[in-house]
Amino acid sequence: MAFLFGAGSGGRLAWLLATILFLTCLFPGPLLAQRVPEKLAYSLSWLGIPVGTATQEIVEEGVTRRITSTARSNDWLSAFFPVEDVIVSSLDKSGASFPGLTRYYRMRIREGSHRRDREIVFAQDRGTASYHDIRSGERLDIPIAGTVYDIYGSFYYVRYLPLEVGKPVSVHVLDGKEQRDVEVQVLRRERLTTVFGEVNTIVIRPMVRQEGVFEGKGSVTIWLTDDARRIPVRAQTKVRVGSVVATLTGDDP
User: How far lies 183's CA from each of 4, 10, 13, 82, 110, in Å?
Assistant: First the structure.
């Protein structure tokens, strides 16, 4: 979930929404439903005060799937700290696992005076990725090994994995200049009041370094519905003062 405002402050919103990230299940009941298209809308609050909105959407585009995450500040916050974050991930559907193999990733961040604009082109068959900082002009070829996701592709991958409390899962991620293994802790099951009413959830914590709006000072905690769709209904991250919370307000097929 790319939602929580800040990577220093910059890119956390994107991370939280993103990072409102991950899991084909061995639990009893129906198989997990990998739903495409899907669009999720969130309200963002800081210390209980509304500060903006965010969306996360996945669609089919021919042989690829495109994931788009946005975060925007509301009018009162925009008056002194405008936020407009857009993160796009394009994945090849021929990949063995859902949502596919990451081919392209772009992060565009505007948070107050902070700006960031970078893209990565993945050549997974050749074991390389091309990093480009569009603002500075920096370019870098990065060696990658195994199946490597961008942060948003990794979220959809982990979202539909088997999840068992107390047993972490991990995923290979590249969203900057170096590949890293991100551990996702499966913390507990919890009953939560949501836009769907009271539902059972699985609470996970991806151990990521966030970037973007409301950039966090620690990892993100995400509540996924404990059912076939594994919808991220809530996400929370600490910031320099207090915490930012993303709450699901609606979903569209």
Answer: 20, 22, 20, 32, 28
Using the predicted structure, report yes or no on whether residue 220 has a pLDDT greater than 60: yes
Contact 117, 177 (CB under 8 A): no
Tokens 């047993």 -> residue = 167
In this model, does residue 217 exceed pLDDT 80?
A: no
Model confidence, pTM: 0.84
Token duo for residue 118: 């970078």
Long-range CB contacts (< 8 A, 24+ apart) of 199-204?
Answer: 199/225, 199/226, 199/227, 199/233, 200/225, 200/226, 200/227, 201/225, 201/226, 201/233, 201/234, 202/23, 202/163, 202/165, 202/226, 202/230, 204/22, 204/23, 204/158, 204/163
Which residues are CB-neighbours of 3 under 8 A, at least 6 positions away?
A: 12, 13, 14, 15, 16, 17, 18, 20, 42, 44, 54, 69, 71, 213, 214, 235, 244, 246
Query: What burial class does residue 232 get, using C-beta atoms within 10 Å of its C-beta: 0-12 exposed, 13-18 middle, 19+ buried?
Result: buried
How much is the pLDDT for 209?
Answer: 58
Band of pLDDT at residue 120, cut at 50, 70 and 90: very high
Extents of the domains making up the chain: 12-248
